[in-house]
Amino acid sequence: xxxxxxxxxxxxxxxxxxxxxxxxxxxxxxxxxxxxxxxxxxxxxxxxxxxxxxxxxxxxxxxxxxxxxxxxxxxxxxxxxxxxxxxxxxxxxxxxxxxxxxxxxxxxxxxxxxxxxxxxxxxxxxxxxxxxxxxxxxxxxxxxxxxxxxxxxxxxxxxxxxxxxxxxxxxxxxxxxxxxxxxxxxxxxxxxxxxxxxxxxxxxxxxxxxxxxxxxxxxxxxxxxxxxxxxxxxxxxxxxxxxxxxxxxxxxxxxxxxxxxxxxxxxxxxxxxxxxxxxxxxxxxxxxxxxxxxxxxxxxxxxxxxxxxxxxxxxxxxxxxxxxxxxxxxxxxxxxxxxxxxxxxxxxxxxxxxxxxxxxxxxxxxxxxxxxxxxxxxxxxxxxxxxxxxxxxxxxxxxxxxxxxxxxxxxxxxxxxxxxxxxxxxxxxxxxxxxxxxxxxxxxxxxxx
Length: 449
Description:
The protein is mainly alpha-helical. The chain has 16 helices and two strands.
């Protein structure tokens, strides 16, 4: 859990530290040099304060209040982090300093603004993600309505929802990058990524809430607990699906900012002054780079299908003995081994694609082709990751909405509408749990590293 967020967190911190050490105005002061680390560590303290005061602002009295409370954690932590970032910037940074020849006379509040842009962009991405994945709002309810007719219409609406959900996050990322880079160069972009991850403690908390409540629901059902227990766990699970999607939104947005900072480092090291798409090598690399996320997603999704088929065959082999008169004990270790071995085996091809592509492009066709490849992968994977993550979350919550009686009691569990929603949820699981979260980390940052 949270490997993508922790990876972006570490990479953003390291990128900001490296860029700060290269600045003559910052590397002669230990306090200024530690400014990125101070932002990261202060976010932990802000998270603790948020948990202490959350109950005063968001009280959980009814089941719908759960989702509001979880979302409120992000709101409160973002509001508290704003003055903390401003004061840290004022205290740690000199009034003016030079990053390089192009960015001279950088003021301390330029850095503060860059961090705050990332911080509030992250909150905006969280709100947009919640709107498109929570059954409290119209998009998910529209999917549920279409699933009265067939699973196909629900899948069509879910795909459309995922594509639409890219618009606002991409605009907010573009604005953050534009202003931060204009003020402080790549140092500003790295600070924007740190700002987006300033509330990482809260993002990880609400992200972990989803699978915990999901597993609690599974235990309640297997244990044969009363229906009202399963109803409560379903409510918690639905809220957890939304908050997990919010966490993935943070991971995707921060990875996009970090990838740009890493790409800037590559251009400096390789001596690439500009990426000209009129250059045939650059344009060829651009096309191949834009293709990489789709190949990666295809392989990871097929891997889920293969592992599921192996698991199904093993369960069918064991069931006659388990359910028969001899009551053979289930072989749990074999099922665990199937899942573990499949996860390692099936990542060989996607991993090789990510690691070898920039090496082949760079050594085989030159630095410009490699720059085009990285640029295409960076732009393409952000859109694909956001749409996949939100589509899968919306399908999952549409199933929860129908099961809870949102369309009426005649459409609850066992109805055709619910069966159609289960089909959509099954399709969405590899999108939101496998391909979507791994795209930005593997295709973007690992290939750049």
